[in-house]
Amino acid sequence: MILLRFTFRNHRSFRDEAVFDLTRSPLKKRLSPPEGTRWADHVHHVDGVYGANASGKSNLLDALHYALIAIKSSASTWLGAPEFPRAPFALDPTRLGDPGEYELEFVSRGRRYDYRFSADTEGICDESLKVVGKQRWTTLLRRTRDGKVSRVGGLARVARRELALSRAAEMDHEALAPIRRDLVEGFDVYRVGDREVRARLARIVDLLVEGGLEFDELVALARIADTGITRIRVEEHEAPEEVRRVFRAFIQQMQGNAQESTNADGAPDQQTEAEDARLAREFIARNLAFTHGRKGTDLRERDESTGTMAWLALGTAVLDALRNGRVLVVDELGAALHPDLSRIIVDWFEDPDVNATGAQLVFTSHDMSLMGAGSGERDKREQVWLVEKDAEGASELVNLGEFALQPKSNVPKQYLEGRFGAVPYTVPSLIHSLLERKGE
Q1: φ, ψ at 216 (rounded to 5°)
Q2: Closest CA to 225 of 334, 151, 97
Q3: What does the alpha-carbon distance between residue 143 and residue 154 come to, in Å, rounded to a whole number?
């Protein structure tokens, strides 16, 4: 999966159109790479988004996440929601009913696609999917507000609140299902906060138990961050039998079968034993445990530092993206991490020897040192994005490449000086009035 461009409008703090373009200059006016080159040669593998607190940085990532979730869930879990999920610009009441618009240009399996849709309070307004054929766009799917679908066989109409691409996946449509699958599986959105870390750690445990991740691989990630961890294992704690029995009785009662199924001799039948086995698996609490140093001191997951857990959670996502060529989207890169670790991650995505799959990293951050990180020689300015709110509270997205800079400009220093905007206008002197008020 290669993300070329993401365009959106009317999503949270973004009222007007914002274009997040990850292509390098030679590809901006071409439909395909120059002969003898690859798609990966003409896109940024790292793009950073900067701005003041509450400027809307995270809302850019949220818009991308929303589009991906709509593609994944609009024909399944969203259909049961009391209202159609959406997040319009809320500071102008006259614009609340306007549709949100989302457009993804991407490369999947060597072909360039353009997928777009718009949605309002009632559901999907329109939708289209195009692919580049012989140096021109060809429409694969077109859908209108009333749910009529054209240009694709086997899918004539869809519900008002579902995307045709999502419905096609539910039907295992031969032509469209693989495209939708690539979009859903080609991105990994890493949100900021403890909840995300806990969810990632739980997933790590499952991968270790299922064999999708090796223990020595996780130890190697821990060693990269100099955590002192020498061994990692999974501890399992099974729920008592009486707890499982009570829970099974509750399930049977909910299903209208309060009587326990038994054989003539009073012993549980095979179905009951199978249910007990399933409950036993579900009622096993699994947690990571760690061994430190030469003395082999053991610590449980809850005793480890926040930074160590954040590194393992994000590090496994980075490893997966680099191995499988995914687009990793990280909100607040560096949260709970030492700056050196953030720079290491950026370097990995920039290094073609490490990033052989062409994976991409998109992140928000306040760490100015990352603006000059990476080992590549490409123009760094195009990889830096700035978000700032106007007088009406609407976020605006600007690329640093639009500014006239000298070749050896100290970009981090100039950014902190406010040369490009997208910095907070702080009023630290107000602390005096607050302290005086407390003393009255």
Answers
A1: -70, -25
A2: 334
A3: 14
Both tokens of 176, joined, read 């469209």
Is pLDDT above 70 for 269?
Answer: no
For 115, the 3-state DSSP assignment is strand
What does the alpha-carbon distance between residue 344 and residue 322 come to, in Å, rounded to a whole number? 13
3-state SS of 367-424?
CHHHHHCCCCCCCHHHHEEEEEECCCCCEEEEEHHHCCCCCCCCHHHHHHCCCCCCCC
- Can you tell me the mean pLDDT for 397-414? 75
DSSP label at residue 239: P
Query: Phi, psi (5° rounding) for residue 37?
Result: -125, 170
The full set of domains in the chain, from first to last, is 2-191+375-417 (3.40.50.300), 194-251+273-308 (no CATH)
Residue 48: exposed, middle, or buried by beta-carbon count in 10 A (0-12, 13-18, 19+)? buried
E strand residue ranges, 82-197: 100-108, 111-120, 123-132, 137-143, 149-150, 187-190
Task: Show the CA angle centred on residue 49, arms to residues 195 and 334, nearest 5°.
Answer: 45
* Whole-number Å distance between alpha carbons of 126 and 71: 13
pLDDT tier at 258, thresholds 50, 70, 90: very low
Report the first-to-last Cα separation within the chain, whole angstroms: 61
Cα 307 to Cα 197: distance, rounded to the nearest angstrom: 10
